[in-house]
Write a structure and sequence with these properties.
It contains six helices and four strands. The longest helix has 20 residues. The protein is α+β, with helices and mostly antiparallel strands. The protein has two domains: 58 residues, no CATH class; 98 residues, 2-Layer Sandwich (Alpha-Beta Plaits). The mean pLDDT is 80.
Length: 164
C-alpha cells in the first residue's frame, strides 16, 4: 500500500469520525485515539501526513453554528420533555453534523434571562452547504414531525458563522 493510499484512507476515517461523533464528549475520546494512530502513521509516512492539530483547525475553520430555540406547550410532562430531548439527539446521526448540544435555561439569577424558551438546540456544521443538506435529510424531517406536537409555536432559529 502506498503512502498516498494510507493518507487517503486515514483522511476518510477522520472525516467519518468527526461527522459521526455523538453529543457526550465522544469526540474527545476519538480524537485521542486518532492522535495515537497519527503518531504511528507519521513514523511510516512523515512527509505525507499533516498533523492532527492542523487537520482539526482546517475542519473547524469558519464553522456554522445552527441554534434552534423551542417553546413547549403548557401541559407537557417531564417524560414528554425527555422524549423531546431524545428526538433532538437523533440529529447527531446525520453525517453533516459535527457537534450537537441540547440545553435548558440555567437559573443564574440574571434578570435578563429569556424565559420564553424552554430548550435550545445547538448544532455545528463545517459550512452552509452542510446545513442545507441537513435541512432535507430524512432524520431531520422525521425529528421535526415527531417534536412538532410538543411545541406551542414554531421554533426561533439563529445561525451564525464562528470567527476564523
Amino acid at each position: 500500500m502506498t503512502s498516498k493510499m494510507k493518507f487517503n484512507g486515514f483522511a476518510i476515517i477522520l472525516l467519518l469520525v468527526f461527522s459521526a461523533c455523538g453529543p457526550d464528549g465522544a469526540i474527545l475520546e476519538k480524537v485521542d485515539r486518532l492522535e495515537k494512530q497519527v503518531t504511528e502513521l507519521k513514523q511510516e509516512n512523515s512527509s505525507v501526513i499533516v498533523s492532527l492539530d492542523e487537520y482539526k483547525e482546517k475542519l473547524l475553520e469558519g464553522r456554522l453554528i445552527h441554534n434552534v430555540f423551542f417553546n413547549f406547550k403548557k401541559d407537557i410532562s417531564d417524560k414528554e420533555k425527555e422524549n423531546f430531548k431524545s428526538e433532538l439527539f437523533r440529529l447527531a446521526n446525520i453525517p453533516h453534523v459535527l457537534d450537537i448540544e441540547v440545553a435548558e435555561p440555567a437559573d443564574t439569577g440574571d434578570k435578563r434571562l429569556r424565559e420564553d424558551y424552554d430548550m435550545v438546540l445547538f448544532i455545528t456544521f463545517s459550512e452552509e452547504e452542510q446545513l442545507a443538506k441537513y435541512q432535507i435529510h430524512e432524520i431531520h424531517l422525521d425529528v421535526k414531525k415527531n417534536v412538532g406536537p410538543y411545541l406551542a409555536q414554531a421554533p426561533f432559529v439563529y445561525d451564525f458563522k464562528q470567527r476564523q
